[in-house]
Amino acid sequence: HAPCLCAQLDPYMDETFVLNAFASQGESVVTVKIIRNKHTGGPAGYCFVEFSDQSSAERCLHRLNGKALPGSNPQRRFKLNYATHNKQPDGRPEFSIFVGDLSAEVENHHLYNFFLQKYPSCMSGKVITDLSGISRGYGFVRFGEETEQRRALVEMQGASGLGNRPIKLSLATPKRRFLASINDGAGEYGQSQGYSYGQYYQPPNYYTQWGYDQYTGSYSYSMPQYGY
């Protein structure tokens, strides 16, 4: 069996509520375990959801994350993660790219599957949304192989077929990695490796309007579910 963490639950959301929420989305869950506060005995705001196999767990992570949680009032959204401290189960290293110009209908599983069909090491796709769940028009894709990350940057630049407009790509380096690279004198993608963004067309302020700096490879917001 494969467990996942389901977070940001309200006190009234018990095991039956969570089971029904997944069932309404066509997903079968083996068990749900609501975690309780050891001091008060009340719900701690999260639970563990167990699936029959790893592929079912991964499908739910990519398909349901960020979607409205059925029956919630006020409305909540599925907030799912691997039950392994924000890491993929096998602990592989991860390499990310920034994907811009996403049309409004693109969701996590669309982004993930679009890259997975060509790059087998693709691990996840995350479309960034506002507090109401509306897409901000950009996201991130993570790979287990750096060679596939680099290939995707070149081969998928301007690609069509994901939503209704071509996508724009850039290298995504977590801020902590970029800051560490400054201290080292040469970044993971610094001048020592000769990597250049010059080959990509990027309109002025195209990425910085979202808090992303394409020249440093850093971004100012946080995505704790992806370790950023």
Within the largest sheet, what's the order of strands? 2-3-1-4
Number of helices: 5
- CATH class division of the domain at 4-82: Alpha Beta
The H-and-E topology, N to C, reads as: EHEEHEEHEEHEHEE
Measure the end-to-end span. Answer: 28 Å
Tell how many strands the DSSP assignment holds. 10
Radius of gyration: 19 Å
Using the 3D structure, state the CATH architecture of the domain at 4-82.
2-Layer Sandwich
Poorly predicted tracts of residues: 85-89, 178-228
The third-level CATH topology of the domain at 4-82 is Alpha-Beta Plaits
Gross morphology is elongated
| Proportion of residues in helical segments | 10-25%
Q: Tell me the major beta sheet.
A: 4 strands, antiparallel
CATH superfamily of the domain at 4-82: RRM (RNA recognition motif) domain
Category by helix and strand content: alpha+beta
Strand content: 15-25%
> Whole-number average pLDDT?
77
Protein name: tRNA selenocysteine-associated protein 1
GO molecular function: RNA binding
Family: Belongs to the RRM TRSPAP family.
Organism: Petromyzon marinus (Sea lamprey)
